[in-house]
Amino acid sequence: IAAVVGFALLLASIAIAGQEQFFHSYLLGFFVFFGLTMGSLALLLLQYLTGGAWGIMARRIFEAGSRLVPFAAILFIPIILGMHSIYSWTDPNVVKANETIAAKTDYLNTPFWIIRAVIYFAYWTIISLVVNNYAKRLDNEPGFKWSRKIENFSGGALLFFFFMISFAAVDWLMSLTPEWYSTIYAFMIIVGQGIMTLSFAIMVLVVLSREEPMASLLKPAHLHDLGKLLFAFNFLWGYLCFAQWIIIYAGNLPE
Predict the structure, then answer these.
(1) Sign (positive/negative) of CA torsion 136, 137, 139, 144?
(2) pLDDT of residue 27
(3) Which of 99, 147, 149, 156 has the least CB density, counted as fewest CB within 10 Å?
(4) What is the largest distance, in Å, between two alpha-carbon atoms of the chain?
């Protein structure tokens, strides 16, 4: 019901706010949902890799979130359809008039941009399917065999996951202002997704703890662990934001 109502409001907003505003707003809304999905997948891989007790209680929430990658791919289609209303570098006249943007056309061009998006979602879908399949086998056959396999897989998958998210952040968000660039920006996005997902998981755990079996299983120590991790992510995010700001500030001083 919520999806039908939301979809009707989306269509109505095109007429009210205009096509360009609609697609910009849709991109922001998509990235909130996308951030929860990617954050779930990343924290799931991280938990299996480290074996930390902090994520055992929240593991099912992360697994559920990670299985929404195909839905995220479907919801990305409107962004492809409306990319000419979102990204200035898709306009040949803008590219010709700006040397900085023109120098980036080998990377920022529509066909290559779409190909990269397909590669990103294909990779995220594959690792989501594999890690959830391993998790199911581990449930059925607890022991060293599957825990070792999922640990090894998570390590490699997490490494390339960060590369994919970094490129996606550049393609979908940083290219909104193609003249500007930052080497910290993508990492800020990744940490922000971690903050959002941890916050969401903690809220879901608190709600689930009102009933069995979670009422007996969830202890204050579990929430303390998640709270400390959330604090660390917030501290890191603040540090990255300040680091980016101080570099931009220093760069602007000569002007």
Answers:
(1) negative
(2) 93
(3) 99
(4) 64
Q: Which residues contact 188 (CB under 8 A, 6 or more apart)?
A: 237, 240, 241, 244
Tell me the CA distances in angstroms from 153 to 68, 108, 149, 164, one per residue in order.
Answer: 20, 32, 6, 16
Residues 6+ apart with CB under 8 A from 252: none
- Determine the Cα–Cα distance for residues 31 and 26; give it in Å rounded to an integer: 8
Q: For the chain, give the number of residues.
A: 255
- 187 SS3 class: helix
Rg (CA), the chain: 20
Residue 7's pLDDT is 83
Instruction: Name the residue among 184, 181, 222 with its Cα closest to residue 202.
Output: 222
Which residues of the chain, if any, have pLDDT below 70? none
Report d(CA 24, CA 4) in Å as an integer: 21
pLDDT at site 66? 93
Residue type, 70: P
CA 67 to chain centre: 13
Please report the beta strands in the chain, taking only residues with DSSP state E, as ranges in sequence order: none
Residue bearing tokens 């009210």 = 16
Peptide bond into 213 cis (omega under 30): yes
Cis peptide before 92 (omega within 30 of 0): no
H/E element, 104: none
